[in-house]
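Researcher: I'd like a structural prediction for the single chain below. Treat it as a standalone chain; there are no partners to consider.
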Amino acid sequence: MNKFIAIVGSNSKKSTNREFLQYMQSHFQNQAEIELVEIKDLPLYKKSADKYVPELALDIAKRIEAADGVIIATPEYDHSIPAALSSALAWLSYGIHPFVDKPVMITGASYGSLGSSRAQAQLRQILDSPEIKARIMPSSEFLLGHSLQAFDENGDLKDKQLITQLDGLFKDFLQFVNISKQLNNANVVNKQKAAEFSWDKD
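Model: Treating it as a single chain, here is the predicted structure.
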């Protein structure tokens, strides 16, 4: 059984993105082991002369490296991902590169009708950056709009059509992960290039 890390892309104590990942954890428990990871206790990203990386970021990086894939649920603020998620991804690409060639499924929930669509598009760009270089599942947007009304009293999604869509996308992700395991011939070089990349160099 595959093991996935599910990153709650919010530092809010009450987040429908956390609620959604908890639903996925339960709903797909017979297909994969999904471990939720919080970013809310990470400090704001800041470069330092000694390239210090917080212990929590190092721990999250180890979990990502050991996992078969990553699921990220992002809210949308001002047409973009939250500052907390951006900061977390900066830590996770600062001298450490756990995302290189790692299969990633992007999801997201928002209070409005668009379900974090713009934030998800931005997140794809960030994950494809030279320092991160994740392997993002294509054509896989899952947009949970009106998320405050999306769950019942048991924490389950109410909309049967959305559940069917999610089931299909998760099945695709399982196949994507298995295919990705055969596409790692350049992984060592890719990690080296990520480690050597710097925006400060010409």
